[in-house]
Structures are given as structure tokens and as C-alpha cells.
Amino acid sequence: MLKNITLSAEDKLVEAARERAQQERTTLNNVFREWLARYAAKDAGADRYRQLMQKLKHVSAGSKFSRDQLNER
Hints:
By secondary structure, the protein is mainly alpha-helical. It has a domain at about 10-60. Helices cover about 65% and strands about 0% of the residues. The chain is built from three helices and no strands.
């Protein structure tokens, strides 16, 4: 279900954003929905990273490496 919200922004900014969205063959509504989804998921990504690091805490490289060793190609 979609919910309507009201935002406030300068006229020039809104028009510039609409023009860019049009150039990208989308709408300002779609651009905002995509941004909102990324914004809402931002913490979820950090949580997934922490969970992965917790799962991999048993992994060890065996020793510390020098700067030169780390930069070898």
C-alpha cells in the first residue's frame, strides 16, 4: 500500500530534480521511493556486516603481516 507524504523544497530545486528524473526516464516519485528504500535499509546493511563478522570471527590469517607484505602484488 502506498502512502502519500508531503515534502517541502525550493521551487528551483524541485524543477531541477524533475528535469534530471525526466532525462533518466523516470519520475521524481520513483527517485524518492528508491532513495527512501536505501535510506531505510542503511542500518540493515551495517547489521548484516556485523553478523557476517561474528560468523567469521574464527577465521585467522595465521600471523600479522608487515606493510610491505600487505602491499605485495
